[in-house]
Specification:
alpha/beta; six-stranded antiparallel beta barrel; 6 helices; 35% strand
Length: 258
């Protein structure tokens, strides 16, 4: 699942620097920006964000008020809060502690420490709502505006799928498309059609000699799952679960559908 981080600071340049540092170390993050805590709160509410990153200059305390508001939300609506600051004076550290902010990071810091902190505060594994299943030789057909394209499914869940597919200029990858998945499991073909899907994350994995895209790896989210299609998916995943238990196989978790 792609995580959404909100970066809050009055300086557009500093927001861009932090955003670039995040993208350089994490490949599953969408960056949103706000120039003040009030705008940041609106983004959090409108976009279901997963982490608030507040850059504190040691003077403006409005971010502390935002942290307090987020802390008062019901537990299932709370958003992790990470404060970044360049000031490590005893007075500033005391203010952070008195505000009840448990997660903060002093800048500059090594890239590894930066990435590890982000993943600890906002653990991507904890955001996955459905278990993913990898069924060998699973293919899918993607249709959009009269164009069709076939690809291979790496793993799938009730919420989405991770797949590989040839690049096509006929497709607008920013728009939803209809997917139909064909599973072959335990000697039986099971089709899960009419999965209205949207791209969450797209990576070019292979290129032509002129560097134009040849093959893509895409994480799709299912926007709509008809009841009959859900039954088909549940049947497949039930059979896959049985096979895993018989073989003692533990599925890989490095890559996510949803």
């Amino acid at each position: 699942m792609s995580r959404k981080f909100v970066i809050i600071d009055h300086s557009p340049a500093l927001r861009k620097i932090i955003g670039a540092k995040i993208r350089a170390n994490l490949d599953d993050v969408q960056i949103l920006e706000a120039d003040n805590p009030e705008s940041g709160l609106s983004l959090i509410q409108d976009h279901r964000c997963h982490l608030v990153i507040y850059l504190w200059d040691g003077i403006d305390s409005r971010g502390f008020s935002l942290h307090a508001k987020l802390s008062q939300l019901p537990s299932d609506q709370r958003v992790p809060f990470l404060l970044l600051t360049t000031s490590d004076t005893a007075g500033n550290l005391r203010q952070i502690e008195e505000a009840g902010i448990e997660e903060y990071l002093l800048l500059p810091c090594p890239s590894r420490q930066f990435a590890e902190t982000l993943n600890r505060v906002c653990n991507p594994v904890s955001l996955r709502r459905d278990k993913r299943y990898a069924v060998q030789d699973t293919i899918f057909l993607l249709e959009q505006r009269g164009h069709a394209l076939q690809g291979n499914v790496i793993n799938a869940s009730l919420g989405g799928m991770l797949c590989e597919i040839p690049f096509s200029e006929a497709f607008n990858w920013s728009l939803p498309a209809s997917a139909s998945i064909n599973f072959f499991i335990n000697g039986k073909n099971i089709v899960a059609p009419h999965l209205y899907s949207t791209v969450v994350q797209l990576t070019v994995t292979h290129r032509h000699p002129d560097f134009s895209p040849r093959k893509l790896r895409i994480s799709f989210r299912f926007l709509q799952v008809p009841d009959e299609t859900r039954k088909s998916l549940e049947e497949v995943f039930s059979k896959a679960e049985e096979s895993e238990q018989l073989s003692g196989f533990v599925p890989a978790r490095e890559e996510a559908a949803l």
